[in-house]
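Supplementary Data S3. Sequence and structure tokens for construct A.
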Amino acid sequence: MSDATTPRKRGPQARAARNDQALIEAAREVFIAQGFDAPVSAVAERAGVGMGSLYRRYRTKEELLQRLCADSMQRLDETARAGLAINDPWQGVAHYIVECARFGFGALAPLAGTIDITPEIQQAVEQAQQSTDELITRAQNAGALRADVTAMDIHLLVGRFSRPGRAPSRHAEEETRARLLAIVLDGLRAQNAGPLPGTPADPREYHAMWGADSSTAGRRQSE
């Protein structure tokens, strides 16, 4: 779409959009590295903005975490769609898993039950689920992905790779993750696959963990 039909943000509006994105990226980095009890002041410092700028956009820590969740689910959907754009069904699934692990999508799991689910989060979750299910079904129908693997299996697998591990350096950490993911991906291939032990995880149980209402949503995130 041309610039003539797509208005570009300028001046204060553009600066506000950049600050907002910087805050979300900083929040992701801080909370993954330090846990969700980390103060919002650490987020503002990482983003390079003042506390006033943070509070003008997010009145409470919970609002910041809610936006972080929605943003992450939107990116999850984008990652699944990128996988679907790859012609080879197996390479599409492999791309999805590797990118999800690199991004750290599963790191938000500890938030389950501690924040209220907004309509924005719910819509983003539903869209991401739809795209991910389509990606997985396509690979299974092609005979590339083992038939007994579920979307929950893959989400839980990604969660195991989502938090930084202890390593001598960032490079060593990334190299180790790449090696372990390669091993895992081979285990997901349909060829020569033995039966999986146990029963698949019930996604309803995991969805229920996020279904906290205002009376059970744990702490109210404010600093």
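Construct B, processed identically:
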Amino acid sequence: MSTGFERIGSDSRLQDHWIRRLVAFIIDSIIAWIATAIIAGIIFLPLILLAAATNYPWYVFNPFTFPFFAGILSVLYFALLEFWYGWTFGKKIMNLRTTKISGQKPPFDAALIRNVSKIYWVLVLIDVIIGLATPGDPHQKITDRFAGTTVTSTTIPVSVSSPEPPIPPA
């Protein structure tokens, strides 16, 4: 069985699939980051004001917890939307959906497993690379294989061949 890396150079449909997944991931990451910034602001603003009022150093509220906080919220964003709807906003825009291999929406545990790598962007990259470097469905990340899920297109594929030209009247 061939790997995704062996096929992606010559398979335009596979290239399209991964480009659309990348664009959907970027859209969803921006949405998750904005939501995280708003929630973090709501949570941390009172703490920062308290620190200012009490002359307590503001840096005690560790700013390096934000990426971890963002990672946790990202995993929840992706997992909950895929569990409830079968798509995230980015996937919906890019005409993609997440399903079990059998075609149904994924249960929460499968959605959580397939999205656990989204806690940090480097893990997502490793997830995709391992999925493409190993034999199996080249449309799946490695966590998709563990979860028994896949990402499919919601559009009808366009036929590559052109229809027969009409026969002119005699």
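Residues 8-153 form one domain. The mean pLDDT is 88.
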